[in-house]
Amino acid sequence: TMTYCIMAALHESDKVELSLKSGEVSGVEALIRWRHPERGVLTPGSFIGLAEECGLIVPIGDWVLASACEQAKAWRRQGLPPMRIAVNISAPHFGRADFARRVEALLASSGMEPSMLELELTESMVMSRSRQVLETLEALRDIGVRLSLDDFGTGFSSLGYLRSFPIQRLKIDQSFVREAHLNPVNASIIRAIVALARSLSIEVVAEGVEMEAELALVRDSGCDESQGYLHAKPMCSDAFVAWMEAEKSRE
Ligand code: C2E
Ligand code: MG
Ligand code: MG
User: Fold this and answer.
1) pLDDT tens for residues 171-203?
2) Which residues surround ligand 2, an ion (CB under 5 A)?
3) Cβ–Cβ contacts within 10 Å for residue 66, how many?
4) Residue 19: pLDDT over 60
5) Ligand 1 centroid to residue 150 C-alpha, Å
6) Which among 234, 104, 85, 190 has a CA at the least distance from the CA of 148?
7) How far is the centre of ligand 2, averaged over its atoms, from the C-alpha of 199 (Å)?
8) Nearest to 173, CA basis, from 159, 193, 158
9) Reduced to 3 states, what is the DSSP secondary structure of residue 112?
């Protein structure tokens, strides 16, 4: 059986105009897990590649999208504040001619606010520049879902696509965040990505923050949000509700 974990993303900037305090949970990301009968809980690294090759990623991806929308509704019923939920999309799924229509149908049937759903794409997916990809991106923008680029900086970056594509967020890959306070090259890359994103009015998230010193660096570099084990490890949805309660009482 498939299940998924939730990973929180926290606001890091003190943008007065958004009246968001630093350290507030701004959204979560769904991270799939496979509860294998013999091998226990498997992380995506061990099965997503295979699922992509054999086409199973399409029904799996549809399932993750639908469950994420259901989960968001359930949290609202449980009294949690509205939160953006991000879903990782794989290339074969995104490449389906009916992808945008499926997302639209799903939002309609679940009654979820489109802007509360974020689709995490990768550079290679949007870079193919095929007509179908462009049409899908434009359809998704019209539907009103948010689009982000995951693992930013690790792909074969052609920055030209940022001009024409409706991307709202860049997620800086954790390889750049790792020990960025000790590694001047990493720190420079982070600052460069933030500068680029700022000038294009794109938000920046730092991924894989594990240490206070890394957090301080990404915050000082101007990242809008951070995500990583320092804040919380991936957890099941029930644990997340408890974690949110604990966060609230800490305020
Ligand atoms: P990703 O979307 O870049 O997710 C971040 C990965 O890094 C997650 O691993 C997360 O647990 C891990 N991570 C986050 N913060 C830290 C940290 O501070 N330290 C360390 N060491 N690791 C951290 P996970 O859950 O194993 O997911 C791996 C990748 O699998 C994801 O990378 C994503 O590309 C893919 N994936 C996850 N769920 C899905 C899904 O539902 N569909 C598809 N197509 N791909 C998925
Ligand atoms: Mg992701
Ligand atoms: Mg990533």
Assistant:
1) 999 999 999 999 999 999 999 999 999 999 999
2) 88, 120, 150
3) 15
4) no
5) 10
6) 85
7) 23
8) 193
9) coil
